[in-house]
Design brief:
The protein has 10 helices and no strands. The chain is an all-alpha fold and 192 residues long. The protein folds into 2 domains: 82 residues, Orthogonal Bundle (Rna Polymerase Sigma Factor, Chain: A); 98 residues, Arc Repressor Mutant, subunit A (Orthogonal Bundle), CATH 1.10.10.10.
Length: 192
């Protein structure tokens, strides 16, 4: 069965079809929830709530997007509700992270290159995960979806109900904040 046939079968109450639909997303949804929440307890709650909502609302899925995009949208809504319950670290304005036009590039930032290269190192991955879990969800979520889930910006915009430029801006904020954080960590390591 293709995805459309599986969705139609799931809408008619076929549990096996629904299980087949979600089978490719269980690890991905849990991984996303863990990276954004920073702890297993919240990740498990988000994971469970996402799939419960998917079961309860499969009838409302209109096949206008892929099942995966719809499922990620549910997960993002669940995460927003979870994050709304606790205070999160606020990032400064993006201008604080951009190059200084009068004095050349901002000397606090090093060029770390492609974010995909950063994830090769386990210790570095742990530092990144820790930082992302403390970052505001409005900036960490698009970053995680783009670089860890390899999702196109257009899909992220649809899931988060934002414009493509807004998503790109948030990804940039997250990248710059992460770069600054890593720069500081490596300076500390070098000096200590």
């Amino acid at each position: 069965m293709n995805e459309k046939e599986l969705v139609l079968a799931a809408k008619s109450g076929d549990r096996a079809a629904f299980n087949e639909l979600i089978s490719g997303y269980t690890d991905r949804i849990y991984r996303l929830a863990w990276k954004l929440s920073g702890n297993e307890e919240d990740a498990a709650d988000i994971f469970q709530e996402t799939f419960l909502k998917a079961v309860d609302n499969i009838d409302s899925f209109r096949l206008e997007s892929s099942f995966g995009t719809w499922l990620y949208t549910i997960a993002m809504n669940v995460m927003r509700a979870c994050f709304a319950k606790r205070k999160r670290m606020q990032l400064g304005p993006i201008e604080d992270y951009l190059p200084d036009h009068e004095n050349g590039a901002n000397s606090k930032l090093f060029d770390w290159g492609d974010p995909h290269d950063l994830f090769e190192n386990t210790q570095l991955r742990e530092m990144i995960d820790s930082f992302l879990s403390r970052m505001s969800p409005e900036n960490s979520t698009p970053f995680v979806l783009r670089y860890m889930e390899d999702m196109p910006v257009k899909d992220i915009a649809r899931i988060m109900d934002l414009s493509v430029p807004a998503v790109k801006s948030r990804i940039l904020r997250a990248r710059l904040a992460l770069r600054e954080h890593l720069t500081e960590k490596f300076r500390e390591k070098k000096d200590g």
